[in-house]
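Researcher: Here's the sequence for the chain we discussed earlier.
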Amino acid sequence: MTFVRIGGVPHHVVTEGSGPVCVLSAGLGMSWFDWDPVVPHLAPYRTVVRFDRPGHGLSAPAAAPPTAAGEADRIAAVLDALGLLGPAVVVGHSIAGFHAEAFARLHPDRAAGLVLVDSSVEEDPRPSRTTAPARALGAVLCAAGLPAALGPAVRDLAVRAATVRGGAPRPGPTDPAPGPTDPVLVRRVYRTSRVLRGTLLENARYGAVAAELLALRDEHPLPPGLPVTVLAAPDGSARWERRQRALARRLGGRYEAAEPSGHLVMRDRPDAVARAVLDVRSGQEDA
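Model: Thanks. This is the structure I predict for it:
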């Protein structure tokens, strides 16, 4: 395992494969291993970088509450620490879709493409004024021993709820077939107070990060011609599909539905995520 220090905080990073670079950033409360089903599809063709944000996975706690600009800079800093200075395709799932888009706006020379995987969308965000309630809740739950007692079980329930009904489709004859997430890793990560506190803090800042991204859209245009794919899991929700299509139009990108899939598209349809990344060729392979 590799750790790089960014802003004084140790970040857990996993790098595999070779070729043009892609960065995979998971959603709220998730870890590097949630991308495991996607990596076998990508590693033969891409250098795949996965990292845990502060308070997630194996990374140390956050030194400060997250911001859109801070998360964009974090992605750039991870690439810098690994010596990967060329353009990268950034894949953001759920709340990390905010971070990926902010990266492309604030580091346009580093962005080869965006793949937003069932990304969070907020047309009229309501920022919370303080993270104090989240910090207080975290302190109470951790003092009561909830992470050690229930953390892995809560993680399992959340994953089951966000996965397509009936489970993921069976891999085809030529598709990699990754096994289930190692329960030892799940316990190692989700029994810690660090991850509970990190998840609560990031969730408390959700509205503020969304509002900051809306401001960045006015001030920092995306690079001209940047390939953008919005890969959504409508799962029968016409409203969610409309919002995801609107996001694709707003970013000048293309919309693609991952079906069948729940919110965890990387687990239900790893082939669709990989295809969206591999379709981004212009600019990166010429660099």
